[in-house]
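The following record pairs a protein chain with its ligand, 3,4-dihydroxybenzenesulfonic acid.
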Amino acid sequence: MPTPPDLIRSAYAELIVTDLAAARWFYVDVLGLVITAERPGVLYLRAFEEYLHHSLVLREGAEPALRKLAYRVRRPGELEVARRYYAELGVPVRAVPAGDTLGIGEAVRLSDPLGFPVELFYAAEHTPRFTQRYDLHPGNALARLDHFNVVVPDVRAGHEYYTGLGFGVSETIEDTEDNLYAAWLYRKQTVHDIALTAGEGPRLHHIAFATRERAQILHTCDLLGALGREAMIERGPGRHGVSNAFYLYLRDPDGHRIEIYTSDYYTGDPDNPTVRWDVRDNRRRSFWGHEVVPSWYAEASTVLDLDGGPVPTRQPAVREATVTVGADGFGTADGANGFKLGNQA
Ligand SMILES: O=S(=O)(O)c1ccc(O)c(O)c1
Ligand SMILES: [Fe+2]
């Protein structure tokens, strides 16, 4: 097997939105992301600590979907390494010229073995870093993009693919029958750049941005309440068991899920241990044992292939919401209404 490319971190995502003005209101006016550039039908956004051109691209289109997950590689030469690696894997892979995405240099675009549209790049236009432009920071200022979470029918296959790329495994959710329900994997020295959630997939579960402090997350909640848009809050605020992060999940005007996240932990030593949660532990998803709304398990965004068509999805062999999921379960094994609490059979 050829050497894998040296990925540094999750870097940007491109979402298709059906109403760019509504999306602009949510991501800029409500979440406070900085507009790096605007082109007809396309918005390029970044968070306050970021100096690359963007970490989120919003492109207007007919149906909401994920167009790209992009990782930055450590040096330009890793793009040729990537071309060889993915050609050997036998997946669709294309060289992309500089500027194909505004602000991004030459790239490699591929459909990864899990079915996701992925772009690898090194060169990107630098922009002013607003870390200390407190005169510009809103009360809910976002610091940086933190991670992607994807829904896949086979978490173990995803785990093998990403560990093959040199990702560390910070946490998992598993059971005593060797089922893997979720995994969190990293290249940068925090809990994850990518998380795998068992379910109908490939689909995008969420894109997460980090804030510096919990108060900034709470301000987003207050802001949405004040605007009468509290329905955009799907889950939280709360404390995760996995990752220990303080979190909030929002649904954007197209239903794309955005997590706001802070206070996870360092994973940079080579012997960083993997935290393994039992699927029956009520505290894994919410450390306080709060119920997880069914939509959080059931709903996710369509992903597009390299030609812009929707990628067909498959069902998982096992899913957390029908095993026993403690405070966030469904009433019966077939997912009927109601909730299981604790370790009810
Ligand atoms: O709900 S979990 O505690 O498993 C969780 C942990 C970290 C995340 O980023 C997340 O989206 C979900
Ligand atoms: Fe997340």
